[in-house]
Amino acid sequence: MRTKRWAFLPALTLAVLPPPARADAPPPPTDPVPAVAHAWPVGSPPMVLRGWEPPATVYGPGHRGVDLAAPAGTPVRAVAAGRVTFSGRVAGQGVVSVELAGTGDPPLRTTYEPVRPSVGKGDELEPGDVVGTVEATGGHCTATCLHWGLLRKETYLNPLSLLPPWLLHRGPSRLLPVLGVPLPR
Questions:
Q1: In what helix (H) or strand (E) does residue 66 lie, and over which residues does it extend?
Q2: 172-185 per-position pLDDT tens digit
Q3: Could you tell me which of 60, 69, 88 has the C-alpha nearest to residue 139?
Q4: Residue 105 near residue 183 (C-beta atoms within 8 A)
């Protein structure tokens, strides 16, 4: 019988360290993202088709937002109070950008695309106000979706961080058995 050599090595503790900062990498955000959202932009809770994947460099590959499943014509709602800073078409797709009130200096901005805008630049919004409807055209999803983005100045952030934890929860709470603990008598 042959003994495995690695079985006799002492246990090692590994620490996962972040990669070293690169000169062309975007600076890390200095202000935390406040959980100011009151609801999801397209229903509660939608299926996240693709999550946020921050790029390693300013122009590197990544996914600068989240894709939420939503059929064409679905109303898109402002997740928090703010002011519309852009409403129009970019590269053939409808885009709405909203500067969120009370989120620091510079303030946070959410983006929604592809949408058929129903608001104009300068419009003041309350949480839940409709900014447009999901368009069937464009996008990079395999199914119709809403791309929801978040920026502070030029730095992309995870838009899901705007949601309070109770809005991120998917489904009812479940109690699971605790194995190996004796039952009370």
A1: strand 66-69
A2: 556 667 677 777 77
A3: 69
A4: no
What one-letter code names the amino acid at 14?
L
> 132 forms bridges with which residues in the sheet?
76, 117
Quick one: what percent of the chain has pLDDT higher than 70?
A: 77
* Interatomic CA distance for residues 116 and 22, integer angstroms: 39
Please report, for residues 79, 108, 111, the alpha-carbon distance to residue 122 in angstroms, rounded to integers and kept in the order given.
17, 16, 15
Instruction: Give the CA angle between residues 141, 137, 153 to the nearest 5°.
Output: 70
- Domains of the chain and any CATH numbers: 37-164 (2.70.70.10)
- 96-139: per-residue pLDDT in tens? 999 999 999 999 999 999 999 999 999 999 999 999 999 987 66
User: Widest CA span of the chain, in angstroms?
Assistant: 78
Residue 92: how many CB atoms within 10 A of its CB?
9
Closest CA to 33 of 167, 119, 151, 166: 151
| Calpha distance 80→23 (Å, rounded) | 34
* CB proximity list for 183: less than 8 A, separation 6 or greater: none
Residues 6 or more apart in contact with residue 25 via CB below 8 angstroms: 56, 57, 58
CA distance 108 to 37: 12
Tell me the pTM.
0.73
